[in-house]
Amino acid sequence: MKSPYFTLEHEAFRAEVRAFLDAEVVPHAARWDETGSVPPELWKSLGRRGWLGLAHPKEADGGARDLFTSVVFLEELGRTGFGGLRAAVSVHAYMATHYLARFGGPELVRTHLAPAVRGDRVSALAITEPGAGADLSGLSVTAERVGDRFVVDGVKSMVSNGMTADFLVVAVRTGPAGQGPRGATGLSLLVVDTDLPGITRVRQRTLGWRSAGTAALTFHSVQVPADRVVGRLDHGFYYLMRGLQLERLVAAVLAVGGAERALEDLCAFLRERSVAGSVLAGRQALVHRIADLSTDLAATRQLVHHTAWLYEQGGLPAVECSMAKLRATELACRVADASLQLQGSHGYMEESSAARAHRDARAATIAAGPSEVLRDLIGRDRLNRPGTPASARRA
Ligand SMILES: Cc1cc2nc3c(=O)[nH]c(=O)nc-3n(C[C@H](O)[C@H](O)[C@H](O)COP(=O)(O)OP(=O)(O)OC[C@H]3O[C@@H](n4cnc5c(N)ncnc54)[C@H](O)[C@@H]3O)c2cc1C
Protein backbone atom coordinates (compact mmCIF):
# COMPACT_ATOMS: atom_id res chain seq x y z
CA MET A 1 0.00 0.00 0.00
CA LYS A 2 1.41 3.42 -0.95
CA SER A 3 1.92 5.85 1.87
CA PRO A 4 2.44 9.62 2.07
CA TYR A 5 4.96 9.11 4.86
CA PHE A 6 7.68 7.24 2.98
CA THR A 7 9.98 8.52 0.25
CA LEU A 8 11.94 6.51 -2.31
CA GLU A 9 14.93 6.90 0.00
CA HIS A 10 12.98 5.27 2.83
CA GLU A 11 11.99 2.38 0.58
CA ALA A 12 15.60 1.87 -0.54
CA PHE A 13 16.59 1.81 3.13
CA ARG A 14 13.84 -0.72 3.84
CA ALA A 15 15.20 -3.02 1.14
CA GLU A 16 18.72 -2.69 2.56
CA VAL A 17 17.60 -3.44 6.15
CA ARG A 18 15.43 -6.37 5.07
CA ALA A 19 18.22 -7.92 3.00
CA PHE A 20 20.65 -7.62 5.90
CA LEU A 21 18.24 -9.02 8.49
CA ASP A 22 17.18 -11.91 6.24
CA ALA A 23 20.77 -12.88 5.45
CA GLU A 24 22.70 -12.08 8.63
CA VAL A 25 20.25 -12.14 11.50
CA VAL A 26 17.18 -14.33 10.99
CA PRO A 27 19.20 -17.53 10.33
CA HIS A 28 20.78 -17.20 13.81
CA ALA A 29 17.93 -15.71 15.81
CA ALA A 30 16.38 -19.00 16.97
CA ARG A 31 19.74 -19.95 18.49
CA TRP A 32 19.89 -16.60 20.29
CA ASP A 33 16.44 -17.35 21.72
CA GLU A 34 17.93 -20.58 23.10
CA THR A 35 21.05 -18.97 24.54
CA GLY A 36 19.00 -16.12 25.99
CA SER A 37 20.80 -13.12 24.50
CA VAL A 38 21.97 -11.58 21.24
CA PRO A 39 25.75 -11.80 20.66
CA PRO A 40 28.26 -8.90 20.77
CA GLU A 41 28.86 -9.25 17.00
CA LEU A 42 25.27 -8.23 16.30
CA TRP A 43 25.70 -4.96 18.17
CA LYS A 44 28.95 -4.25 16.32
CA SER A 45 27.39 -5.12 13.00
CA LEU A 46 24.36 -2.86 13.55
CA GLY A 47 26.61 -0.14 14.96
CA ARG A 48 28.92 -0.22 11.92
CA ARG A 49 25.92 0.36 9.68
CA GLY A 50 24.80 3.32 11.79
CA TRP A 51 21.52 1.61 12.69
CA LEU A 52 21.87 1.95 16.46
CA GLY A 53 21.90 5.71 16.22
CA LEU A 54 19.55 6.54 13.36
CA ALA A 55 17.72 9.13 15.44
CA HIS A 56 20.65 10.25 17.59
CA PRO A 57 22.60 13.48 17.04
CA LYS A 58 25.75 13.75 14.97
CA GLU A 59 27.82 14.63 18.07
CA ALA A 60 27.24 11.07 19.27
CA ASP A 61 28.11 9.57 15.88
CA GLY A 62 24.36 9.29 15.26
CA GLY A 63 22.64 9.65 11.91
CA ALA A 64 20.23 12.45 12.89
CA ARG A 65 17.80 10.92 10.38
CA ASP A 66 14.07 11.64 10.28
CA LEU A 67 11.68 9.57 12.39
CA PHE A 68 10.33 7.61 9.42
CA THR A 69 13.79 6.17 8.79
CA SER A 70 13.51 4.70 12.28
CA VAL A 71 9.95 3.56 11.56
CA VAL A 72 11.28 1.63 8.56
CA PHE A 73 14.08 0.08 10.63
CA LEU A 74 11.73 -0.90 13.47
CA GLU A 75 9.04 -2.33 11.16
CA GLU A 76 11.67 -4.50 9.53
CA LEU A 77 13.06 -5.52 12.91
CA GLY A 78 9.51 -6.47 13.95
CA ARG A 79 9.05 -8.37 10.72
CA THR A 80 11.90 -10.74 11.59
CA GLY A 81 9.38 -12.48 13.86
CA PHE A 82 11.81 -12.61 16.80
CA GLY A 83 10.48 -10.59 19.74
CA GLY A 84 13.59 -10.98 21.89
CA LEU A 85 15.77 -9.55 19.15
CA ARG A 86 13.45 -6.61 18.55
CA ALA A 87 13.24 -5.88 22.29
CA ALA A 88 17.01 -6.05 22.76
CA VAL A 89 17.77 -3.69 19.88
CA SER A 90 14.92 -1.25 20.47
CA VAL A 91 15.56 -0.94 24.23
CA HIS A 92 19.18 -0.11 23.44
CA ALA A 93 18.68 2.21 20.47
CA TYR A 94 15.39 3.95 21.29
CA MET A 95 14.83 3.68 25.02
CA ALA A 96 17.94 3.63 27.25
CA THR A 97 20.11 5.75 24.95
CA HIS A 98 17.21 8.06 24.11
CA TYR A 99 17.53 9.61 27.57
CA LEU A 100 21.23 10.30 27.01
CA ALA A 101 20.62 11.80 23.57
CA ARG A 102 17.70 13.92 24.69
CA PHE A 103 18.65 14.98 28.21
CA GLY A 104 22.28 13.90 28.82
CA GLY A 105 25.16 16.38 29.01
CA PRO A 106 28.14 16.39 26.59
CA GLU A 107 30.25 14.18 28.89
CA LEU A 108 27.61 11.40 29.03
CA VAL A 109 27.22 11.70 25.28
CA ARG A 110 30.97 11.15 24.87
CA THR A 111 31.47 8.42 27.46
CA HIS A 112 28.26 6.40 27.04
CA LEU A 113 26.05 7.43 24.13
CA ALA A 114 28.70 7.46 21.39
CA PRO A 115 30.08 3.96 22.24
CA ALA A 116 26.49 2.67 22.42
CA VAL A 117 25.73 4.10 18.98
CA ARG A 118 28.84 2.36 17.62
CA GLY A 119 27.73 -0.94 19.17
CA ASP A 120 30.78 -1.07 21.44
CA ARG A 121 28.69 -0.89 24.63
CA VAL A 122 25.22 -2.32 25.28
CA SER A 123 22.65 -0.41 27.30
CA ALA A 124 19.49 -1.22 29.24
CA LEU A 125 16.74 0.74 30.95
CA ALA A 126 16.00 -0.19 34.56
CA ILE A 127 12.76 1.29 35.85
CA THR A 128 10.64 -1.63 37.07
CA GLU A 129 11.11 -3.10 40.55
CA PRO A 130 9.66 -6.19 42.20
CA GLY A 131 7.27 -3.92 44.13
CA ALA A 132 6.45 -1.30 41.48
CA GLY A 133 5.98 -1.36 37.72
CA ALA A 134 3.15 0.59 36.13
CA ASP A 135 3.06 3.00 39.08
CA LEU A 136 6.28 5.04 39.09
CA SER A 137 5.45 6.70 42.40
CA GLY A 138 6.13 3.34 44.07
CA LEU A 139 9.76 3.09 42.91
CA SER A 140 12.09 2.60 45.85
CA VAL A 141 15.69 2.06 44.63
CA THR A 142 17.59 4.86 46.34
CA ALA A 143 20.60 6.94 45.36
CA GLU A 144 21.97 8.85 48.31
CA ARG A 145 24.47 11.64 47.70
CA VAL A 146 27.71 11.08 49.66
CA GLY A 147 30.49 13.50 48.68
CA ASP A 148 31.17 13.26 44.94
CA ARG A 149 29.19 10.00 44.55
CA PHE A 150 25.73 8.53 44.75
CA VAL A 151 25.34 5.33 46.74
CA VAL A 152 22.70 3.13 45.10
CA ASP A 153 20.72 0.46 46.95
CA GLY A 154 17.77 -1.71 45.95
CA VAL A 155 16.52 -4.12 43.29
CA LYS A 156 15.39 -3.61 39.68
CA SER A 157 13.59 -6.36 37.79
CA MET A 158 12.44 -7.27 34.28
CA VAL A 159 15.36 -5.41 32.72
CA SER A 160 15.64 -6.30 29.02
CA ASN A 161 19.35 -6.60 28.06
CA GLY A 162 19.94 -6.83 31.81
CA MET A 163 22.20 -9.88 31.44
CA THR A 164 24.50 -8.32 28.86
CA ALA A 165 24.29 -4.55 29.34
CA ASP A 166 27.54 -2.64 29.93
CA PHE A 167 25.59 0.22 31.45
CA LEU A 168 22.11 0.94 32.70
CA VAL A 169 19.95 4.02 32.78
CA VAL A 170 18.38 3.54 36.21
CA ALA A 171 15.37 5.32 37.71
CA VAL A 172 16.42 6.09 41.29
CA ARG A 173 14.86 7.88 44.20
CA THR A 174 16.91 10.95 45.09
CA GLY A 175 14.21 12.74 47.03
CA PRO A 176 11.12 11.95 49.07
CA ALA A 177 8.19 10.30 47.29
CA GLY A 178 4.55 11.26 47.47
CA GLN A 179 4.77 14.92 46.56
CA GLY A 180 3.90 16.88 43.44
CA PRO A 181 1.63 15.72 40.62
CA ARG A 182 1.05 11.92 40.73
CA GLY A 183 3.37 11.67 43.74
CA ALA A 184 6.39 10.95 41.58
CA THR A 185 8.74 13.77 42.48
CA GLY A 186 12.20 12.91 43.75
CA LEU A 187 13.07 10.55 40.89
CA SER A 188 16.29 10.90 38.91
CA LEU A 189 17.89 8.98 36.06
CA LEU A 190 21.39 7.71 36.78
CA VAL A 191 23.82 6.04 34.38
CA VAL A 192 25.34 3.03 36.15
CA ASP A 193 28.15 0.90 34.69
CA THR A 194 27.39 -2.75 35.35
CA ASP A 195 31.00 -3.63 36.26
CA LEU A 196 30.85 -1.51 39.42
CA PRO A 197 31.31 -3.41 42.69
CA GLY A 198 28.03 -4.25 44.46
CA ILE A 199 25.93 -5.16 41.40
CA THR A 200 24.63 -8.68 40.92
CA ARG A 201 22.38 -9.83 38.10
CA VAL A 202 20.16 -12.87 37.89
CA ARG A 203 18.47 -14.08 34.72
CA GLN A 204 14.66 -14.00 34.74
CA ARG A 205 13.14 -16.69 32.55
CA THR A 206 10.24 -15.27 30.56
CA LEU A 207 7.52 -16.75 28.36
CA GLY A 208 8.68 -14.86 25.27
CA TRP A 209 11.34 -12.31 24.25
CA ARG A 210 13.82 -15.06 25.10
CA SER A 211 16.92 -13.51 23.54
CA ALA A 212 16.36 -10.21 25.36
CA GLY A 213 18.44 -11.37 28.34
CA THR A 214 15.89 -10.25 30.93
CA ALA A 215 17.42 -9.86 34.39
CA ALA A 216 16.86 -8.70 37.94
CA LEU A 217 19.69 -6.50 39.19
CA THR A 218 20.55 -5.96 42.84
CA PHE A 219 22.46 -2.84 43.88
CA HIS A 220 24.27 -3.11 47.18
CA SER A 221 25.96 0.17 48.18
CA VAL A 222 27.01 0.79 44.57
CA GLN A 223 29.11 3.94 44.30
CA VAL A 224 28.32 5.94 41.18
CA PRO A 225 30.12 9.20 40.27
CA ALA A 226 27.79 12.15 40.82
CA ASP A 227 28.25 13.39 37.24
CA ARG A 228 26.34 10.36 35.95
CA VAL A 229 22.96 12.00 36.56
CA VAL A 230 21.03 12.38 33.30
CA GLY A 231 19.86 15.98 32.98
CA ARG A 232 18.73 17.58 36.22
CA LEU A 233 18.49 15.95 39.61
CA ASP A 234 14.92 15.06 40.66
CA HIS A 235 13.62 15.56 37.09
CA GLY A 236 13.46 11.82 36.31
CA PHE A 237 9.67 11.60 36.34
CA TYR A 238 9.40 14.37 33.77
CA TYR A 239 12.02 12.69 31.53
CA LEU A 240 10.34 9.29 31.88
CA MET A 241 6.94 10.71 30.96
CA ARG A 242 8.46 12.08 27.76
CA GLY A 243 10.52 8.97 27.01
CA LEU A 244 7.54 6.69 27.59
CA GLN A 245 5.72 8.22 24.63
CA LEU A 246 8.56 7.26 22.31
CA GLU A 247 8.69 3.80 23.96
CA ARG A 248 5.00 3.32 23.22
CA LEU A 249 5.34 4.50 19.66
CA VAL A 250 8.33 2.19 19.12
CA ALA A 251 6.39 -0.73 20.65
CA ALA A 252 3.52 0.01 18.25
CA VAL A 253 5.78 0.06 15.19
CA LEU A 254 7.46 -3.21 16.23
CA ALA A 255 4.05 -4.80 16.82
CA VAL A 256 2.91 -3.83 13.32
CA GLY A 257 6.04 -5.49 11.92
CA GLY A 258 5.46 -8.57 14.07
CA ALA A 259 1.81 -8.84 13.02
CA GLU A 260 2.81 -8.49 9.38
CA ARG A 261 5.23 -11.41 9.72
CA ALA A 262 2.69 -13.60 11.54
CA LEU A 263 0.09 -12.89 8.85
CA GLU A 264 2.59 -13.62 6.06
CA ASP A 265 3.51 -16.93 7.69
CA LEU A 266 -0.15 -17.84 8.11
CA CYS A 267 -0.97 -17.06 4.46
CA ALA A 268 2.01 -19.14 3.31
CA PHE A 269 0.74 -22.08 5.39
CA LEU A 270 -2.84 -21.78 4.12
CA ARG A 271 -1.64 -21.67 0.51
CA GLU A 272 0.39 -24.85 0.96
CA ARG A 273 -1.58 -26.99 3.40
CA SER A 274 -3.97 -29.36 1.73
CA VAL A 275 -6.87 -30.81 3.75
CA ALA A 276 -9.41 -33.25 2.26
CA GLY A 277 -8.04 -32.72 -1.23
CA SER A 278 -7.86 -28.93 -1.41
CA VAL A 279 -5.66 -26.19 0.01
CA LEU A 280 -6.92 -24.34 3.07
CA ALA A 281 -6.50 -21.04 1.24
CA GLY A 282 -9.63 -21.95 -0.74
CA ARG A 283 -11.95 -22.21 2.31
CA GLN A 284 -14.20 -19.20 2.46
CA ALA A 285 -14.29 -19.09 6.26
CA LEU A 286 -10.50 -18.81 6.32
CA VAL A 287 -10.36 -16.33 3.44
CA HIS A 288 -12.67 -14.08 5.46
CA ARG A 289 -10.49 -14.41 8.58
CA ILE A 290 -7.51 -13.28 6.52
CA ALA A 291 -9.54 -10.39 5.11
CA ASP A 292 -10.50 -9.17 8.59
CA LEU A 293 -6.95 -9.42 9.93
CA SER A 294 -5.50 -7.69 6.85
CA THR A 295 -8.02 -4.86 7.16
CA ASP A 296 -7.31 -4.41 10.87
CA LEU A 297 -3.60 -4.41 10.19
CA ALA A 298 -3.89 -1.82 7.42
CA ALA A 299 -5.96 0.48 9.67
CA THR A 300 -3.59 0.01 12.59
CA ARG A 301 -0.56 0.74 10.45
CA GLN A 302 -2.14 4.06 9.41
CA LEU A 303 -2.80 4.99 13.05
CA VAL A 304 0.79 4.16 13.95
CA HIS A 305 2.23 6.10 11.01
CA HIS A 306 0.02 9.08 11.74
CA THR A 307 1.15 9.01 15.37
CA ALA A 308 4.78 8.95 14.22
CA TRP A 309 4.04 11.95 12.03
CA LEU A 310 2.45 13.80 14.97
CA TYR A 311 5.45 12.92 17.14
CA GLU A 312 7.82 14.25 14.52
CA GLN A 313 5.97 17.58 14.44
CA GLY A 314 7.48 18.21 17.88
CA GLY A 315 4.43 17.93 20.12
CA LEU A 316 4.13 15.07 22.55
CA PRO A 317 1.07 13.14 21.37
CA ALA A 318 0.67 11.09 24.55
CA VAL A 319 -2.89 9.96 23.86
CA GLU A 320 -2.12 8.96 20.27
CA CYS A 321 1.04 7.09 21.37
CA SER A 322 -1.09 5.18 23.86
CA MET A 323 -3.76 4.48 21.24
CA ALA A 324 -1.16 3.30 18.74
CA LYS A 325 0.48 0.96 21.26
CA LEU A 326 -2.83 -0.35 22.57
CA ARG A 327 -4.20 -1.02 19.13
CA ALA A 328 -1.03 -2.44 17.54
CA THR A 329 0.10 -4.70 20.39
CA GLU A 330 -3.38 -6.15 20.92
CA LEU A 331 -3.80 -6.71 17.18
CA ALA A 332 -0.42 -8.49 17.11
CA CYS A 333 -1.79 -10.85 19.78
CA ARG A 334 -4.93 -11.51 17.75
CA VAL A 335 -2.99 -12.16 14.55
CA ALA A 336 -0.55 -14.44 16.38
CA ASP A 337 -3.44 -16.32 17.96
CA ALA A 338 -5.19 -16.80 14.61
CA SER A 339 -1.91 -17.85 13.03
CA LEU A 340 -1.35 -20.51 15.67
CA GLN A 341 -4.95 -21.76 15.59
CA LEU A 342 -5.16 -21.99 11.79
CA GLN A 343 -1.87 -23.86 11.56
CA GLY A 344 -3.24 -26.55 13.87
CA SER A 345 -0.66 -28.76 15.53
CA HIS A 346 2.04 -27.29 13.27
CA GLY A 347 1.50 -23.92 14.91
CA TYR A 348 1.45 -25.41 18.37
CA MET A 349 4.95 -26.87 18.14
CA GLU A 350 7.32 -25.13 20.55
CA GLU A 351 9.82 -24.18 17.84
CA SER A 352 7.25 -23.02 15.23
CA SER A 353 7.20 -19.38 14.18
CA ALA A 354 3.50 -19.24 15.13
CA ALA A 355 4.22 -20.37 18.69
CA ARG A 356 7.05 -17.86 18.97
CA ALA A 357 4.85 -15.04 17.62
CA HIS A 358 2.23 -16.00 20.20
CA ARG A 359 4.74 -15.93 23.10
CA ASP A 360 6.41 -12.73 21.94
CA ALA A 361 3.25 -10.76 21.16
CA ARG A 362 1.97 -11.23 24.72
CA ALA A 363 4.91 -9.36 26.24
CA ALA A 364 4.19 -6.17 24.33
CA THR A 365 0.74 -5.59 25.86
CA ILE A 366 2.45 -5.44 29.28
CA ALA A 367 5.87 -3.81 28.78
CA ALA A 368 6.04 -0.01 28.36
CA GLY A 369 2.58 0.39 29.88
CA PRO A 370 0.01 -2.39 30.24
CA SER A 371 -3.10 -2.10 28.04
CA GLU A 372 -5.22 -1.33 31.11
CA VAL A 373 -3.10 1.71 31.96
CA LEU A 374 -3.32 2.92 28.36
CA ARG A 375 -7.10 2.48 28.30
CA ASP A 376 -7.31 4.47 31.50
CA LEU A 377 -5.31 7.31 29.98
CA ILE A 378 -7.21 7.33 26.68
CA GLY A 379 -10.64 7.03 28.28
CA ARG A 380 -10.03 9.75 30.84
CA ASP A 381 -8.71 12.09 28.16
CA ARG A 382 -11.89 11.59 26.16
CA LEU A 383 -14.19 12.00 29.17
CA ASN A 384 -12.40 15.13 30.35
CA ARG A 385 -12.78 16.96 27.06
CA PRO A 386 -15.21 19.85 27.35
CA GLY A 387 -18.50 19.17 25.60
CA THR A 388 -22.15 20.10 25.63
CA PRO A 389 -23.75 18.84 28.88
CA ALA A 390 -26.08 15.89 28.36
CA SER A 391 -28.92 17.87 29.94
CA ALA A 392 -28.50 20.64 27.35
CA ARG A 393 -28.53 18.07 24.53
CA ARG A 394 -31.88 16.67 25.71
CA ALA A 395 -33.43 20.12 25.83
C1 LIG B 1 8.92 -8.95 28.52
C2 LIG B 1 9.03 -7.72 29.37
C3 LIG B 1 10.14 -6.88 29.25
C4 LIG B 1 10.27 -5.77 30.09
N1 LIG B 1 11.38 -4.96 29.97
C5 LIG B 1 11.55 -3.96 30.85
C6 LIG B 1 12.75 -3.16 30.83
O1 LIG B 1 13.63 -3.31 29.97
N2 LIG B 1 12.91 -2.21 31.80
C7 LIG B 1 11.96 -1.99 32.76
O2 LIG B 1 12.17 -1.13 33.60
N3 LIG B 1 10.81 -2.71 32.78
C8 LIG B 1 10.59 -3.68 31.86
N4 LIG B 1 9.43 -4.43 31.90
C9 LIG B 1 8.47 -4.18 32.95
C10 LIG B 1 7.21 -3.50 32.47
O3 LIG B 1 7.43 -2.16 32.15
C11 LIG B 1 6.19 -3.70 33.60
O4 LIG B 1 5.86 -5.08 33.57
C12 LIG B 1 4.96 -2.86 33.45
O5 LIG B 1 5.25 -1.51 33.66
C13 LIG B 1 3.88 -3.30 34.45
O6 LIG B 1 4.42 -3.34 35.74
P1 LIG B 1 4.25 -4.66 36.63
O7 LIG B 1 4.66 -5.83 35.81
O8 LIG B 1 4.94 -4.43 37.91
O9 LIG B 1 2.71 -4.78 36.86
P2 LIG B 1 1.84 -4.00 37.96
O10 LIG B 1 2.18 -2.56 37.97
O11 LIG B 1 1.90 -4.77 39.23
O12 LIG B 1 0.41 -4.20 37.33
C14 LIG B 1 -0.16 -5.51 37.18
C15 LIG B 1 -1.33 -5.42 36.25
O13 LIG B 1 -2.33 -4.61 36.87
C16 LIG B 1 -3.04 -3.87 35.91
N5 LIG B 1 -2.89 -2.44 36.21
C17 LIG B 1 -1.78 -1.80 36.66
N6 LIG B 1 -2.02 -0.48 36.79
C18 LIG B 1 -3.31 -0.29 36.44
C19 LIG B 1 -4.16 0.85 36.36
N7 LIG B 1 -3.71 2.08 36.66
N8 LIG B 1 -5.44 0.67 35.93
C20 LIG B 1 -5.90 -0.57 35.61
N9 LIG B 1 -5.14 -1.67 35.66
C21 LIG B 1 -3.87 -1.54 36.06
C22 LIG B 1 -2.43 -4.25 34.55
O14 LIG B 1 -3.19 -5.28 33.98
C23 LIG B 1 -1.06 -4.75 34.91
O15 LIG B 1 -0.56 -5.65 33.94
C24 LIG B 1 9.26 -5.50 31.04
C25 LIG B 1 8.12 -6.31 31.11
C26 LIG B 1 8.00 -7.40 30.29
C27 LIG B 1 6.77 -8.27 30.39
List the helices and strands and how they pair.
Elements: H1 8-35, H2 40-48, H3 67-79, H4 83-103, H5 106-118, E1 123-126, E2 142-146, E3 149-159, E4 167-173, E5 187-193, E6 199-203, E7 215-225, H6 236-272, E8 274-275, E9 278-279, H7 284-312, H8 318-342, H9 344-348, H10 353-364, H11 371-383, H12 390-394
Parallel strand pairs: 1-4
Antiparallel strand pairs: 2-3, 3-7, 4-5, 6-7, 8-9
Helix pairs in contact: 1-3, 3-6, 4-5, 4-6, 6-7, 6-8, 6-10, 7-8, 8-10, 8-11
Bound molecules: flavin-adenine dinucleotide (FAD).
Flavin-adenine dinucleotide binds next to strand 1, strand 3 and helix 11.
Identify the notable features of this structure and list them briefly.
53% helix; Butyryl-Coa Dehydrogenase, subunit A, domain 1; Butyryl-CoA Dehydrogenase, subunit A, domain 3; 9 strands; single chain; four-stranded antiparallel beta sheet; alpha+beta; 14% strand; 395 residues; 12 helices; three-stranded mixed beta sheet
CATH architecture grouping of the largest domain: Up-down Bundle
> What kind of sheet is the major sheet?
4 strands, antiparallel
Helix content: 40-55%
C-alpha-based Rg, rounded: 22 Å
Descriptive report:
- The chain is of the alpha+beta class and 395 residues long.
- It has three domains: 115 residues, Acyl-CoA dehydrogenase/oxidase, N-terminal domain (Butyryl-Coa Dehydrogenase, subunit A, domain 1), CATH 1.10.540; 110 residues, Beta Barrel (Butyryl-CoA Dehydrogenase, subunit A, domain 2), CATH 2.40.110; 146 residues, Butyryl-CoA Dehydrogenase, subunit A, domain 3, CATH 1.20.140.10.
- Helix content is 53%, strand content 14%.
- It contains twelve helices and nine strands.
- The strands form three sheets. A four-stranded antiparallel beta sheet has the order 2-3-7-6, with no helix packed on it.
- A hairpin with a 2-residue loop joins strand 8 and strand 9.
- Helix 8 runs antiparallel to helix 10.
- The relative contact order is 0.11.
- The model has no long low-confidence stretch (mean pLDDT 95).
- The site of flavin-adenine dinucleotide has 22 residues, from strand 1, strand 3 and helix 11.
- Flavin-adenine dinucleotide (FAD) binds next to strand 1, strand 3 and helix 11.
